[in-house]
Amino acid sequence: MSRPRTLALIVAAGRGHRAGEGLPKQYRTIGGQAVLRRTVQAFLAHPQIDGVQVVIHPDDRELYDAAVEGLDFLPPVNGGASRQESVKLGLEALTADCVLIHDAARPFVAPAVIDRVLAALNNEDGVIPALPVSDSLRRGGSHIEAEVEREGLYRAQTPQGFRHAAILAAHRAVSLAATDDAAVLRAAGGRVAMVEGDEANMKLTTPADFARAETLLAAAMTSRTAMGYDVHRFGPGDHIWLCGLQIAHTHGLIGHSDADVGLHAITDALLGTIGDGDIGQHFPPSDPQWKGAASDRFLAHAAQLVRARGGRIDHVDLTIIAEAPKVGPHRDAMRQRIAAILGIGFGSVSVKATTTEGLGFTGRREGIAAQAVATVRLPAED
């Protein structure tokens, strides 16, 4: 018997700004990545999820595209005026046996939670993960008006799993201001089972939530440092490309691409942090498409590979070894350009220069060398 086709529907159409920074919370970053990206990746990585679709606000398409750049999954669906309408529009767009509906602002959903929901869904029309209430409860305003018995009370989480036909029929038949989809199914007469949730599967809403998320990520990350080195010789020309800048000079640098020795060294350093070969493997000089190519493309690619592993670039340090041209007048512009390509802060980029006191090929002004060191943080299990 074949496994039922199961898709994840990520609800990201909300416009809440309570988390600050002027962005909907699903597009804020934690650990250098958008919350939505982390959420989508959690489902893409699960072996029993056959596809992922996100419901977005139509005004957020640019934010969405930037958040999920490089990920391969179903195109987004525009949401509606309410959460229920957004979910309904997402469900209408899906073809599946089962669907897991998940809040975009819960990026820490664990594979085990997804496993428990899917296992229970074999015998149910609806399943939610939930945690028992452990705190004492009170009802009131400025003063306590009553105690509330906590026995039998649970905190609902997502993903909430459903038979696709059952939850779609419920959304078509029922209209109510529901906070989750289990309530919609129950209002339509369906039954919903509960499985164990996870304390880490929190919904990010307030600045305090985001601060806690950063702490959790920091504890789960490991630091890696790698080096890169590159050399290009001088040839005919009146300028060179160095750290993404065109600089007038008595000669040019010879290379298959634009021969930007600084960006090449940083690219190799970043690839080294994730153990993903070197620049020649990703952009072989034998391939004519890279002839004369701007090296910012190489560096941006390496940075994207780091981010795709859940990584965050903490710092890059570049040393240029040359008698000429002088780096000092261009240093800050170089730092700004590198920071812009990598999507990191100006203060996270260092550019230094030195000579070899007339010794060796750089001392003889035959070319330029560059050495780079990159430090990134990656998920500890990577």
From TrEMBL:
Gene Ontology molecular functions: 2-C-methyl-D-erythritol 2,4-cyclodiphosphate synthase activity; 2-C-methyl-D-erythritol 4-phosphate cytidylyltransferase activity
Keyword flag Transferase: yes
Binding site residues for a divalent metal cation: D230, H232, H264
InterPro entries: IspD (IPR001228), IspD/F (IPR026596), IspD/TarI (IPR034683), ISPD_synthase_CS (IPR018294), MECDP_synthase (IPR003526), MECDP_synthase_CS (IPR020555), MECDP_synthase_sf (IPR036571), Nucleotide-diphossugar_trans (IPR029044)
Record site feature (Transition state stabilizer), residues: R18, K25, H256, T355
Residue ranges occupied by any 2-C-methyl-D-erythritol 2,4-cyclodiphosphate synthase domain in the UniProt entry: 224-376
Region feature (2-C-methyl-D-erythritol 4-phosphate cytidylyltransferase): 1-224
EC number of this enzyme: 2.7.7.60, 4.6.1.12
Site residues (Positions MEP for the nucleophilic attack), renumbered to this chain: R150, K203
Residue ranges of the region described as 2-C-methyl-D-erythritol 2,4-cyclodiphosphate synthase: 224-382
Cofactor(s) demanded: a divalent metal cation
UniProt: 4-CDP-2-C-methyl-D-erythritol 2-phosphate binding residues: D230, V231, H232, H256, S257, D278, I279, G280, T354, T355, T356, E357, F361, R364
Function: Bifunctional enzyme that catalyzes the formation of 4-diphosphocytidyl-2-C-methyl-D-erythritol from CTP and 2-C-methyl-D-erythritol 4-phosphate (MEP) (IspD), and catalyzes the conversion of 4-diphosphocytidyl-2-C-methyl-D-erythritol 2-phosphate (CDP-ME2P) to 2-C-methyl-D-erythritol 2,4-cyclodiphosphate (ME-CPP) with a corresponding release of cytidine 5-monophosphate (CMP) (IspF).
HAMAP family given in the database record: IspD, IspDF, IspF
Similarity comment: family membership: Belongs to the IspD/TarI cytidylyltransferase family. IspD subfamily.
Name under which the protein is recorded: Bifunctional enzyme IspD/IspF
Taxonomic lineage of the native organism: Bacteria, Pseudomonadati, Pseudomonadota, Alphaproteobacteria, Sphingomonadales
